[in-house]
């Protein structure tokens, strides 16, 4: 993240940083939870192994989301980058659990 331009307001800069922090904390948690749930139902191993693998890989997901949020150019891209994995993992979980009924 860059500091604001010389003529820009520090208030908007702080709002953008706060928005990124919220995206990293809560969006990262939601993405990690969605990925753990998705992997727990989609991995073709025993239930115990699938849940363990899903929970283990959720730490990787959370870390990647936090890195993404603070690496992109602006807060809008950060939020879009956080909401896409949540939608994909959540949709795959819903497809397997409720639509296919497995």
Characterize the structure shown.
The protein is an all-alpha fold. The chain has one domain (28-99). Helix content is 81%, strand content 0%. The radius of gyration is 17 Å and the shape is elongated. The mean pLDDT is 90.
Notable traits:
102 residues, mainly alpha, 3 helices, elongated
Helix content: over 70%
Give the overall average pLDDT: 90
Number of strands: 0
Main sheet attributes: strand count, strand direction, barrel closure? none
Helices and strands, in order, run as HHH
Coarse shape = elongated
Radius of gyration: 17 Å
Strand proportion: under 5%
Q: In total, how many domains does the architecture comprise?
A: 1
Distance between the termini: 44 Å
Would you identify the regions where 5 or more consecutive residues have pLDDT less than 50? none
Nutshell version of this structure?
The protein is mostly helical and 102 residues long. It is built from three helices and no strands.
Summarize the helices and strands and which ones pair or pack.
Elements: H1 10-42, H2 47-71, H3 75-99
